[in-house]
Each structure stands twice: as C-alpha cells, then as structure tokens.
Amino acid sequence: MSERQTLGRDLTLYLLARFGLIAVVAVVLLLAGVPLLVALAVGIVVGLPVGLLAFRGLNARVTAGLAARNKRRARERAKLRAELREAE
C-alpha cells in the first residue's frame, strides 16, 4: 500500500473514531434524559479530549504520515526551485 493510501486510510479511521466517540457520549446522555443539543455539546466537549487519549496510536500514525508527506513535498519544491534557477 502506498504512503498516500495509508495516510488517507489512517486519517479516515481517526476522524471516524473521534466522531464515533462524540456520538457515543451524546447517545448515553440522551438515554439519561438530557436534551439533544445539550447532549451534543457535552459530547463534543468531552469526546474531543478523550479521543486524543483513547486514539493516541492512531493519532501518532496520522501525524507521522503528515510529517512524511510534508517532507516529501518540501524536497519536491526545492528540486523544482533548483530546476527553475538553472533555467534562468
């Protein structure tokens, strides 16, 4: 699997996991009788920081993938600039 496909898969999984956690917290609160908007607000406030801790490994893979992609893009940009300087 290519680096781009792996990053896309990891990023998608991470986002779905984070949104899933928010949904789970909101559903639990709804079952406890909390109004929908309040349950969603609390789900976001509680779910986002908990997601950082709960999905630490997936977050690290996404961060590493983004860093590798940025490094590759910087090399390509430097190569293009060098080629443009030579053409002048």
From TrEMBL:
Give the residue spans that cross the bilayer: 12-31, 37-55
Write the record's keywords in alphabetical order, separated by commas: Membrane, Transmembrane, Transmembrane helix
**InterPro entries according to UniProt:** DUF4229
Q: Which protein, by its recorded name, is this?
A: DUF4229 domain-containing protein
